[in-house]
Amino acid sequence: MKEATHFPIIIIGAGPIGLACAIEAKKAGIDYLILEKGCLVNSLYNYPVNMTFFSTSERLEIGNIPFVSNSPKPTRNESLEYYRRTATAFDLNIQLFEEVQNITKEAEIFEVTTTKNQYTAANIIVATGFYDIPYLLQVPGEDLPKVTHYYKDPHFYAFRDVVVVGSQNSAVDAALETWRKGARVTMVIRGNEIGQRVKYWIRPDIINRIEEESIKAYYNSTVQSITEKDITIQTPDGLVTIDNDAVIATTGYQPNLAFLEKIGILLSDDAIRTPFINEDNHESNISGIYLAGVICGGMNTHRLFIENSREHAVKIIQHINTK
C-alpha cells in the first residue's frame, strides 16, 4: 500500500479563510495542503452571478493583497478574480475537487481520507463555511426540478411565473432581478416584513415594488405544496394556489456540523450547537484540530464573516508555530 503523504498542516476548505490560513502558514515557513471539495472559493462561486457584497473591498482582503474593485461594494465576479489572483500570488498548495471524508487520530498523527487520496498531518484546520447544506421547505414537491435553493442568473426566469421564498438578501436579489427580466414574481415571506438585514440600498427598492404591486408578496405565509403547474401557499386568509413555473427557495444554509461530530468535535447542547474552541488559539477539544471562519459560530451563521474571521488564521498559525 502506498504510504500516505504527510503535511504539518492540512486545511479543509479553500474559501477566503482557508486561503488566509495557508498564507499565514506559508509566511511562518510551515508546509501545508489545502483540500477543497469544489472549486476555489466554492461558496462565492455559487453566489448569484450579479451579487454585490455588503462589505467594502478592503474588508475582504487577505494576505495584504489589495482588493481593487470598480465601486466601494465589490461584485461576485470581482471577488472570484481577487481570490484567484491571491492564490496565484502566494503559489498556494491546493487540491481542488477532493472531498475529505474522514479524519482519525493515531497517537499524535491525523489520518485524512479523501475521495482521491490518503494523507497524514500533525495539525488540521477546518474552514468549511456553511453554504453547502440548504434548509429545506419540507413540503411535497420540493424535489421537483423546478425548485432550487441556489439562485444564479435572472435570464433563466424571464416571462415565467416565479415564486421566491424568503425575505433576506438572497430572496430580495432574486425577486428584483427576475422581475426586471420580465418574470411574474410572487414572494412568500414567513414574517411580517422584508428582512432588516437586507442591504440598505436594496430594501427600499423591494418595498416599493411590493407596494406598487409589481411584485406580489404574501406575508406571514408558508409554502404548503408544489406541483409541476402550481404552488399552494398558507396565508393568513387561508390556502392560496397560484400558477407557477419555478420556485427559488432562499431559505438559508447551515454548516456541516455532522462532519465535526463525526471527527469528534464537541458541540453545545443548545439550538446554536456551537463547536468547542479555545478563543485564544481556535483549537478544538481535540488537540491539533483547529476551526476557522464561520464554522466557529455553529448554527449562528450571521455572526462571523470574512472581515472578522481573518484574525483566526493568525491565531491558529501562531499557536501551531509554538508547538
- Low-pLDDT residue intervals, each spanning 5 or more residues: none
**How many strands in all?**
17
Number of domains in the coordinates? Answer: 2
**Amino- and carboxy-terminal Cα gap:** 31 Å
CATH class of the largest domain: Alpha Beta
Binned, the helix content reads 10-25%
Question: Under CATH, the topology of the largest domain is which?
Answer: FAD/NAD(P)-binding domain
Count of discrete alpha- or pi-helical segments spanning 4 or more residues: 7
Set out the fold topology.
Layout: E1 5-12, H1 16-27, E2 32-35, H2 42-45, H3 76-89, E3 94-95, E4 100-106, E5 109-114, E6 118-126, E7 133-134, E8 147-148, E9 161-165, H4 169-180, E10 184-188, H5 203-211, E11 216-218, E12 222-226, E13 230-235, E14 238-243, E15 246-249, E16 253-254, H6 257-262, E17 289-291, H7 306-321
Parallel strand pairs: 1-2, 1-6, 2-3, 6-17, 8-15, 9-10, 9-15, 10-11
Antiparallel strand pairs: 4-5, 5-6, 7-16, 12-13, 13-14
